[in-house]
Prior knowledge:
The protein is α/β, with parallel strands linked by helices. Helices cover 39% and strands 13% of the residues.
Amino acid sequence: MSAYWSELARRLVPYVPGEQPRDRKFVKLNTNENPYPPSPLVIDAIKKAAADTLRLYPDPACTEFREAVVSRYGVKIEQVFAGNGSDEILAFAFAAFFDSTSLDEFESGDINDEILFPDITYSFYPVYADLWGIAYSKIPLRDDFSLDTDPFMDILGGVVLPNPNAPTGMAVSLEDLRKIAEAAERNKRVFIVDEAYIAFADQKGVATALPLIEEYPNLLVIRTFSKEASLAGLRAAFAVGDGELIEGLCRIRDSFNSYTLDRLAMAGAAAAVNDSSYYDAINQKVIATRGRVSTALEAMGFRVLPSQANFIFTAPPAGKSGEGFFTALRERGFLVRHFNKPRIANFIRISMGTDKDMDAFLEACKEILRI
């Protein structure tokens, strides 16, 4: 602990991202990146934007990008917010819509505005809450890791829910999202749906919550291009919600950094939105690979959760631990993700690579099981 740090910096437990190796070549299946390249239209747009205009500040309103979202999804321009990746938008949203808890409230235990999210979910959520001093409560998933919506029906402090969930990959239906939105709206609380993986959902009844925006002024839907548009290295995302919610996000952004997206990112993101046919095709390939790999792992004795994302969450057969399998795969040149946390310590998360990568991965799994 540095003597120069603030009390806030001392008490924070930062998010730990997946390993990005530089000293060895791995088959990278640990950070849910899309295995296929971005649309050629995206590359062309970025090249054109790399001009002498880079000496000028970018458009703080991200108009070109937001107009592309409006055209594709049929929403209004005032309902769209653009950000430097969904993590940034989430950080702004926590600050914009959830009140911090005073020291007196913490010490007395008299807290009525806890935000809710699942106990097994994106581990950045509690980090954001701690950053802004917001009280939160984790709602346990069922034993099969599905979401029980009942605890979300008595909402006092808002809800944050990834759909599909991470790291489980499981999703809830649009009707369940509607129920939670209605419950939150009764108490005038914000419901954030984090749709980082929705482009890979093919289960009946599971779909984007964007059509619910007109019905629920408290609903904010966040989408990122890191996975579905093969742009993890670009950092671009958008949120859609009622104009009042978007204005709240803008107030936080403009108190932090008005120029969140640069010219290259805006050009690339707009081009990605406009080339939906390319991305629909490559993401269908990811879905097909996910199904094939899930079936193969189950045949080997793995427990595989029913994923709607671009990754699989799985537990090795009896006699093999999640941590041990993670280590054995790494020794063979395959990076996956292991979370040493209660309830999921025996699982590993496997991002979907190309079919060639996944064939090699499955062979490595068979080799490990023979040992």
